[in-house]
């Protein structure tokens, strides 16, 4: 028996019968005969493929909520991803579900996010003339764009969890549902933490009707939500929250939209970011020869707009600013006397 087979056997002994077992995966888009003797389960391989990908490394330089904030302690898309994954592992472990699958989905769920957060999504939606959805782009990243157009060839369950971590439909595994809930728990709470750090909110601003249910501190709110998800899901046989906690979370999200996500102080630079990305898009449409060499072959089978969209969506905040300055801002020079 190989190491992988032993790990798969142990899963059947210790996990909930409702868990997603590695040896029952629906498989990958492309069969990999040379991987059959790997010591890792298929979901463990997917974690490694994601963590070692270029798109994962770029998350550390992409905006979560606050555009290029001054200070070392604001969340980035990378730290958000790590927080989501840790919450998801805690919940899946307590429910007897597959932690490896949840970790793979959590690590990959935001790989398709644009520079400058949702402002970048809005900009590319305008450029493309149709909604740009980061969950769909995340799937495109792992299916097509990574490894020079070969993709990461991830399992069906991980790909489904990445695509369905937001919007409809919900994931078709309990582990994917856990990641979706963990994403909601993580972002609304760490965005509060960052907003307080930025001086936009204080803890006292959060309505008492919410804090009386969820808690009066950052850690207390996360603890309440995680424990409620575990207890309620155990009884329900699916991933869910109790009605009063679910309502408090939805009310907290609405509060954040009103006070932070649409706050002119927090979002004051977004119009500049959108204009910058739109100008970059228009430039590369007119000058496709200026796209990086590794994007040139894509032009022939994906077309101009799709290729340019993929290139800009993959940019980090700083890279987008640098390219804008390179293209549109006159460079100084020294004149020798």
Describe this structure in words.
The protein has helices at 3-14, 42-51, 54-58, 77-95, 99-108, 117-128, 134-149, 156-163, 174-197, 208-214, 218-236, 243-261, 270-286, 296-302, 304-313, 317-328. With 337 residues, it is mostly helical. It is flat, with a radius of gyration of 22 Å.
Number of strands: 0
- Terminus-to-terminus distance: 78 Å
Using only C-alpha atoms, the radius of gyration works out to 22 Å
Contiguous runs where pLDDT drops below 50 for at least 5 residues: none
> What is the residue-averaged pLDDT?
94
Task: Note the main sheet.
Answer: none
Global shape? flat
Structural class: mainly alpha
State which percent range the strand residues make up: under 5%
Q: What's the SSE pattern?
A: HHHHHHHHHHHHHHHH
Q: Number of helical runs? A: 16
Q: Indicate the percent of residues in helices.
A: 55-70%
Brief rundown of the structure:
The protein is mostly helical and about 325 residues long.
Main features:
337 residues; mainly alpha; 61% helix; 0% strand; flat
Please describe the topology of this protein.
Elements lengths: L2 H12 L27 H10 L2 H5 L18 H19 L3 H10 L8 H12 L5 H16 L6 H8 L10 H24 L10 H7 L3 H19 L6 H19 L8 H17 L9 H7 L1 H10 L3 H12 L9
């Amino acid at each position: 028996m190989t190491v992988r087979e032993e790990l798969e056997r142990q899963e059947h002994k210790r996990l909930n019968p409702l868990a997603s077992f590695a040896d029952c995966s629906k498989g990958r888009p492309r069969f990999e005969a040379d991987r059959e003797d790997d010591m890792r389960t298929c979901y463990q391989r997917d974690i490694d493929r994601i963590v070692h990908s270029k798109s994962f490394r770029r998350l550390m330089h992409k905006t979560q909520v606050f555009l290029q904030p001054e200070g070392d302690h604001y969340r980035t898309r990378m730290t958000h991803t790590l927080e989501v994954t840790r919450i998801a592992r805690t919940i899946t472990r307590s429910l007897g579900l597959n932690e490896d699958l949840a970790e793979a989905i959590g690590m990959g769920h935001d790989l398709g996010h644009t520079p400058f957060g949702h402002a970048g999504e809005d900009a590319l939606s305008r450029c493309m003339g149709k909604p740009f959805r980061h969950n769909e782009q995340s799937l495109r990243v792992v299916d097509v764009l990574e490894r020079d157009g070969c993709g990461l060839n991830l399992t069906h369950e991980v790909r489904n969890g990445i695509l369905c971590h937001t919007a409809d439909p919900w994931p078709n595994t309990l582990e994917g549902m856990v990641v979706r809930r963990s994403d909601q728990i993580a972002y609304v709470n760490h965005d509060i933490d960052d907003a307080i750090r930025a001086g936009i909110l204080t803890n006292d601003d959060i309505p008492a009707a919410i804090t009386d249910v969820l808690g009066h501190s950052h850690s207390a709110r996360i603890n309440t939500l995680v424990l409620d998800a575990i207890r309620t899901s155990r009884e329900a046989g699916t991933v869910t929250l109790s009605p009063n906690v679910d309502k408090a979370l939805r009310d907290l999200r609405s509060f954040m939209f009103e006070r932070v996500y649409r706050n002119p102080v927090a979002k004051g630079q977004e119009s500049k970011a959108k204009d910058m990305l739109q100008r970059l898009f228009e430039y590369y449409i007119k000058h496709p020869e200026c796209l990086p060499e590794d994007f040139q072959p894509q032009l022939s089978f994906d077309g101009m707009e799709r290729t340019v969209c993929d290139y800009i969506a993959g940019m980090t905040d700083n890279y987008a600013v640098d390219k804008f300055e390179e293209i549109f801002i006159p460079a100084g020079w020294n004149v020798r006397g």
